[in-house]
Fold these 2 entries.
Entry 1:
Amino acid sequence: MSNNQTNKIEFKIVTPEKVLYQDLVDGVTLPGIDGQITILPNHIPLISAIKPGEVLVKKAGKEELFSVTKGVVEIDGKTITFLTDAAERAEQIDEKRAEEARKKAEAIMAEAHHGEEGYVDAVAQMERALSRVKIARKRRHGGGSPTISQ
């Protein structure tokens, strides 16, 4: 393995339908339950729950954003495997549709009572919609995303 590849880590985003992303990257930042998790090459082994939000992938000085739902990440030091219900690249997000989904979830939350099944589902929909709107706006306005230092 060349020295250039030793400073990389393989990253995969896997949904039930397909492997959405797979490449050697410089680093990845994921929305962990207790805050952001940044993973660089040779990271210690870890398995962690991931909440809906933004995944930032850094490769060759460039950043790519993904909107993701909840999932689980497994890190073995050489590979990061993120299993999630759904994910999409920032450029695939339709900001208008994401904003409509946010409003719909907000209306459901207003009508349902805390603890009801519909309310819990609406909260999850709201988290995903807010993440998608935020990422679409970042992409449209050209940045504002955190960086991964090496």
Entry 2:
Amino acid sequence: MSNNPINLGLRFVLELAMLAALAYWGWTMHEGLTQVLLVIALPLAAATLWGVFRVDNDPKKAPVRIPGVLRLLLELALFVMAVALLAQAGQPTLALIFGVIVLIHYVISYDRIQWLLQQP
């Protein structure tokens, strides 16, 4: 089910929403140079972690290969951070909706989770 085109599209949208949530927190919770730096640095750091530390064949060769369980924890940590920062930035309803959609996505992607947990 995790390779269904609709689910892959949802996953991509969730990844973009996570990056947007990090930027939103930086923009709304800070001012001045710190604000600008966080709007750029937080999403950039998250995207770098997401893209560099991967399991081979998910969906291609990993630039830096990590165990599947560590990849799963990295993904969950970034999504949980996005939910928490949205709530802290005064968007608790949006944070809840985003968190529920992420949870639904992972339930639907149970086969990918099983695959990740089996990767050394």
